[in-house]
Amino acid sequence: MTVPSSSQLKPIDVGLMGTGEYTTGITPGGQSKSDKKIGVVGVTMFDLRRRGKVGSVLMAGTNGSKFPQVREHFARNVASVYKGLDCDFRSFPDEGKVDAEAYKSAISELSPGSAVIIFTPDSTHYAIAKEALEAGMHVLVTKPATQKLSEHQALAKLAEEKGLVCFVEHHKRFDPAYADARARAKNLGDFGFFSSYMSQPKLQLETFKAWAGIDSDISYYLNSHHVDIHCWIVNGRFRPVRVTASAAAGVAKDMGCDPRTEDTITLLVDWVSNTDESKRGTGVYTASWAAPLKAGVHSEQRFHYMASKGEVRVDQAHRGYSVTEDDTGKADYNVSYMKYSPDEDGFFDSQKGYGYVSFEKFIDACRRVNAGQDKAADFEGKGLPTIQDTVVTTAILNAGRISLDEKRPVEIVTGKDGELQLK
């Protein structure tokens, strides 16, 4: 049998679950005021379709009345801006209908072997991913994969049983600076200390007001980035054993969010060596969505990794590219993530951005499995954010939430079956 080359692989149909800022660029107040004014997921899928990797695109939300606005937005801000970009998609539920389970109808319209990409509130990830995997779909779910460790582990088992690709959209793994830092950090000896900070301005509390503090928190939403990067760096060498969380509050409440909404969450995590338990390390991860409105960047993002033979520092908020306008002031732009200006021929030009790459890696993996070139298990152990490779990340985030709710440290232990447990 002749195995098709990558360019000969069949395009894959894709179902996009979620119609919010990250998928479409539309927020409850209209077009996003952040750096994602046309979204990320939708425009990337449309460009992958232009390149022959994606076929039909379906999109599922909860309110069908939103889709005329989305289509008009895509027509005006995407199709008319980029050459050859077809923004057509089928939508669920129908216009005028509200259905919190419209994702089920969308998934039922896809053939087994299609791809489902989930960008919905954190509390819905597990149900949608489970539905898709059981229907024979490959799955990419935004971080956090799930809010509960047990649900993450269940998805990993289901994907393995079905032989399906299941990735978590930890796009920072594809940031060239972070990826190179990880490679260098692995050669610096035993881990000792890790500190990270990631934030977004208060305006995000307006965007996420419907679920902030109710269905999820800022640690699940932003700490997930650097917790995963740290887990990725020390994978197999150190393990987390104890999590203690602390939170600041007040700003979100004053902005009309649910009174339970924390502004800033810090996780303190004890780590121990897998080969010598006398060697220990400390991780401190802080995330906030109460940062100033005019800081010049949409997201502060930096970390410090210290080991026995050296250290690594990365600040990815300021990349040496800023624009100052009379009306809006100075802003730092991260074109390494997504580049929204067209290329010299008018085509979408973000194929090298790590936000785009994280989706293309998933789409390519699905197409290779469908063509028989690879098995889903072949993508394990390569540094990719598979559902299995990201279990420890969810364990830490889940433990942090329990620590906040129950006001106590939470232990992470390995059960007799080899699986992680929280106590």
Automatic annotation (TrEMBL):
One of its GO terms (cellular component) is cytoplasm. It comes from the Eukaryota. GO terms for biological process: NADPH regeneration. InterPro entries: Gfo/Idh/MocA-like_OxRdtase_N, NAD(P)-bd_dom_sf. Residues 97-170 form the Gfo/Idh/MocA-like oxidoreductase N-terminal domain. One of its GO terms (molecular function) is oxidoreductase activity. This is Dehydrogenase.
